[in-house]
Amino acid sequence: MNDPGHNHDLFGVGGGETPKPELTLVVIPTYNERENLPRVIPMVLGAVEALHVLVVDDGSPDGTGEVADRLARDSEGRVHVLHRTRKEGLGQAYLAGFRWGLERGYGRICEMDADLSHPPDRLPAMVEASRSHDFVIGSRYVDRKVRVVNWPMSRLLLSYFGSRYARIVTGLPVSDATGGFNLFRREVLESLDLDRIESEGYSFQIELKLRAWRRGFRFQEIPIVFTERDQGESKMSRRIVAEAVWKVWKLRFLHLSGRL
Predict the structure, then answer these.
(1) From its phi and psi, is residue 89 left (phi > 0), alpha (psi between -120 and 50) or beta?
(2) Is the pLDDT of residue 235 over 90?
(3) List of residues 6+ apart from 133 with CB closer than 8 A
(4) 72, 45 in Cβ contact below 8 A?
(5) Helix, strand or coil, per DSSP, at residue 172
(6) What is the pTM of this model?
(7) Which of 14, 137, 187, 193 has minimal Cβ neighbours within 10 Å of its Cβ?
(8) Beta strands 24-30 and 108-111: pairing type?
(9) In sequence order, which residues have a C-beta less than 8 Å from that of residue 112 and are 6 or more positions away?
């Protein structure tokens, strides 16, 4: 298992205090997001009252971690920070956040980007949907519609057909397999062997959904409008895309062999 870094859990939950299972934890991984973090966190906190935020910072050299600490100090116990010593990728950051939330008894854990591409005002609908479903997908492509703003056509086609490709190869029956705005009830994440998940980027999101669906958990896709970031730089790379292309075939094999 990778070293999760060090945890500055100084505010609110932690240190023996366990929240009620009605609380939702929104995990926001960061790397050089100091401009976006003060924008997104107030919007997230304002969307749902029974909600906390965990910022998982991978040692951002631009001071994102310090900004997160300041926001936590001013949050009355609703914002927490997990400082990791090095950049290990989106998947490992989320897994560290999942473990942190499960250890502290949160009833729901949500993945969310720091750059406001995922709309915080859809969080109430996602929490509500989780009352009757095991996990909820904030979908850009549900109902055969495309809800994406400010993406170049090349990026849109890559994302849209990437999700269709993943569905065809793995059999995962979702419209937005690669999307990263997802909410899981704690029972789902507890049932997964998090140590076995090695994917990053697009393929991490595919694998997480596939493993949950394969175990019989029920999901719902709700529509969201995805808006490309207007601050900072995208973390998308050719390596992340290439990994997703071949990783889905490994996931298909594991699925068909019953080893997923």
Answers:
(1) left
(2) no
(3) 218, 219, 220
(4) no
(5) coil
(6) 0.85
(7) 193
(8) parallel
(9) 26, 27, 28, 40, 44, 118, 120, 180, 181
Nearest to 167 by CA among 131, 147, 139: 139
How would you write 191-221 as a 3-class SS string?
HCCHHHCCCCHHHHHHHHHHHHHHCCCCEEE
Bridge partners of residue 54, in order along the sequence: 27, 80
* Sheet with strand 182-185: strands edge to edge: 6-8, 79-83, 51-57, 24-30, 108-111, 182-185, 135-139, 219-223
For domain 6-256, say whether CATH 3.90.550.10 is its number: yes
The pair of three-digit structure tokens given for residue 110, joined into one six-digit string: 């949500």
Task: Say how far apart CA 253 and CA 251 lie, in whole Å.
Answer: 5
> Would you state the structure tokens that stand for residue 123, as one six-digit string?
């969080």
Q: What is the mean pLDDT of the chain?
A: 86
Report H helices in 130-200. 153-170, 186-191
As a whole number, mean pLDDT of residues 218-245 equals: 73
Candidate from 1-10, 30-39, 137-146 with smallest mean pLDDT? 1-10
Q: Cα(12)–Cα(54) distance, rounded to whole angstroms?
A: 12
Q: Which two tokens stand for residue 22?
A: 């009605």
Cβ atoms of 82 and 97 closer than 8 Å? yes
